[in-house]
Design a protein that fits this description.
- The complex is a heterodimer of chains A (about 210) and B (about 100).
- Chain A is an alpha/beta fold and about 210 residues long.
- Chain A has eleven helices and four strands.
- Chain A folds into two domains: about 30 residues, no CATH class; about 140 residues, Nitrile hydratase alpha /Thiocyanate hydrolase gamma (Nitrile Hydratase, Chain A).
- In chain A, the strands form two sheets. Chain A has a two-stranded parallel sheet with strand order 1-4.
- The longest helix of chain A has 15 residues.
- In chain A, helix 3 crosses helix 4 and helix 4 packs across helix 5.
- Chain B is globular.
- Chain B has four helices and no strands.
- In chain B, helix 1 runs parallel beside helix 3 and helix 2 crosses helix 3.
- The longest helix of chain B is centred in the N-terminal third of the chain and has 15 residues.
- Classes of the chains: A alpha/beta (about 210), B mainly alpha (about 100).
Chain lengths: ~210, ~100
């Protein structure tokens, strides 16, 4: 049951050519501005804020934690204030908890109920994170899920799955890969992918040759 | 009681890892939602409750659920009426040359 390797896609969320909701969203925008409930700059600010978030922020936090043990402690004990130290603004984030991968435990993040994700740091979650398949299966068969992403923790490593909520969001602190001793923070950050921050993958020792 | 959103532990097929480019109306749905939150006109929990009670939850795309829920809350709270949203949306559709 755990390995369903058929290539069929039995259920996909419906994507319309142009969603009928597109006009409704535009209508809400127009009416809210017309009535003075919201202003256009307020709306544009929120768009700009979300566009400015990306997994690179998470990678920067991880690279600093790998090179500065004291920062790592602060990141694990109070992630939001650690993020502020690096100039990130997680004000609009709910509680943020960073969970550390170790040789004994590998962490995986999901939001079974919807799509909670550290958006104020990493931006919008990927589509697959919001898919019905990931949400349902990540807690039931996390190893099978990770295998689909081309990764599986070694046997004997415990897998801890964190189910995010509206009030608490999680990010993974992966282990620093071997062979990266001489690398500086910027190069280290380049190894940390979005998928590694969610836990469906891990940073690879060296960046692939181009 | 569990609703259609309560998916944790269910079985499911392979995960489709392809992404789609976020469309402008989706960015806007996100932004309106967030701006209403900042103004104290809507909370995350209210929005979630509205999403989870959508009768067509399983048929809608992700931001369609968001948009439908925001619309529902605005109407429930009396900030906008369903009639004026429908009318304005109709005008916009006509301008876009839709059927």
């Amino acid at each position: 049951m755990s390995d369903d390797n058929t290539h069929s896609h039995p259920h996909k969320e419906v994507q319309h050519e142009r969603s009928p909701y597109a006009s409704h969203v535009r209508a809400m925008e127009a009416l809210l501005v017309e009535k003075g409930v919201l202003t256009e700059p307020e709306i544009q600010d929120r768009i700009a804020y979300m566009e400015s978030r990306s997994p690179a922020n998470g990678a920067m936090l991880v690279a600093r934690a790998w090179t500065d043990p004291k920062f790592k402690q602060r990141l694990l004990s109070d992630a939001k204030s650690a993020a502020r130290e690096l100039g990130l603004d997680p004000t609009h984030e709910a509680e943020l908890i960073v969970v550390e991968n170790t040789p004994e435990v590998h962490n995986l993040i999901v939001c079974t109920l919807c799509s909670c994700y550290p958006r104020a740091v990493l931006g919008r979650p990927p589509d697959w994170y919001k898919s019905f398949e990931y949400r349902s299966r990540a807690v039931r068969e996390p190893r099978a899920v990770m295998r689909e992403f081309g990764f599986e923790p070694p046997e004997g490593v415990e897998v801890a799955v964190y189910d995010s909520t509206a009030d608490v969001r999680y990010m993974v602190l992966p282990m620093r890969p071997p062979g990266t001793e001489g690398m500086d923070e910027e190069d280290l950050a380049a190894l940390v992918t979005r998928d590694a921050l969610i836990g469906v993958s891990v940073p690879r020792p060296t960046a692939p040759a181009s | 009681m569990s609703g259609p959103h309560d998916l944790g532990g269910s079985s499911g097929g392979p995960i489709d890892r392809s992404g789609h480019e976020v469309e402008d109306w989706e960015r806007l749905a996100d932004a309106i939602n967030s701006a209403l939150g900042s103004k104290g006109l809507q909370t995350t929990d209210q929005h979630r409750r509205a999403i989870e009670s959508l009768p067509d939850y399983l048929e809608l795309g992700y931001y369609e659920r968001w948009a439908a829920a925001t619309e529902k809350l605005l109407v429930e709270k009396g900030i906008l009426s369903q009639a004026e949203i429908d009318e304005k949306a109709g005008e916009i559709e006509r301008r876009w040359g839709g059927s």
